[in-house]
Amino acid sequence: MLISFDTEDFLTPQAHDAAGFYARTLSSLGMRGTFFVVARKALALRESGRSDVIAQLAEHEIGYHGYDHSVPPTMVERCEGRGFEGGVEALLDRERRGIEAVSEVFDASPVSFCPPGANWSVPIYETMRRLGLRIMSDCAIEREPGPPAWFSGVLVLGYHFYLDGYFDQPDLADRLRADFDTLATEAAGRGGYLTMFSHPTMVTCSAFWDGVNFQHGRNPLESQWEPAPLRTPEQTARIQRELADFLSGLAAREDLEFLTYRDVVRRHCRTVTLMPADVEVLARKLLQRFTYHDIGDQSVSPAEAFVAVTACLGGQAGDAPLEIEPTLGPIEPSPDETSAAPTTVEALQSACRALRGEGPVTIVPATVNVGNHRLGAADFLRTCCRALAEEIHHQDAETPVDIVTGPALPVVAETARFRALAYQGVWGIFPPTFTGAGQLELARLQSWSYRAEPKTS
Q: Hey, which CATH number is domain 2-268, 3.30.70.141, 3.20.20.370, 3.10.20.30, 3.40.50.2000?
């Protein structure tokens, strides 16, 4: 189990105390949480002289929550219309400064990122990966407790149990216990992880600070920004008292292992390693079903399979273990149609060797030139899998190889986790007309990179 706190409100001084309350309470119970801190929040703590709160939070894991959270234009709005690399370039310098600020204030280097609100996208994840963050929380495609997954080259986990929704209910602690017990029982059957989360500001405030200022894309001058409205001291005291009671009960349970995101990274961030025989098994599995597959105690995404299969078919793997770093899927669509005319063993192997001519493949190309053919990535991979699985690649160089055609995206792209992705109507900070169509297309393309960790890993 992980306990996460989205620590974002840099306008309301009382929100600083709420973060300190959570940190002190967990520390007193011998528990560690993760505080995902906005850069401007870290700077506000320092500038307001709250060294006490900084020290309290520093006893826990510090994650990153973006430079300024939801100040327009938001991170995902900055990415829209720029493509993959353009989106990364729009964010990189700003978010680098944000991570440096959080690291300096807390004397800790984050390894985890929580998207502010619905500020997730493939370029955002790639930006964080390039800046050294290795695991993303509150992932839009991971909504159920269970094993972590890989997506767009990073480890991802969802958010599952939301404390703030109980704050205004009577019998807060009892309701939390009852609902948590139900969810924990269900999660135990799946194995993996369950994440509980809260926004500290909501312990002391009756509304979100960003909703007060930026709802529906409003963008007032910074001089006009207002702090969040406060709860009464009695309301805050009741919430804190009942939260402390609930957390004390969690600490006493023997069926929960409390971890940080850094712990999850240590357990799951490892290089996929395949022997040539494993790649042949993988090729046969991909021909049967175009999706990620378990090979032994590790899972392999279609993007990683692309690297492994083409390396083996191109004769670049040898007999040694093949180590594959997390690989991105295509960052632009493949052509709708692929030529059905056969190619040859030599053309297929030459195309595989050309892919690695300038170094390891880190992004699956949308198209691959095979002799006179221009194949979409999925059909190229299927054809390579057939050549490898049926040992056609050992035959004469001019032996014809039939092109194997099929859908351009893996099976998982058609599941609810991808088809339900949306921006419009999901977060009240976005302008009502914002659809993020370009970001959604990139996300579907990265279904190539999706794989769930095996329960046994």
A: 3.20.20.370
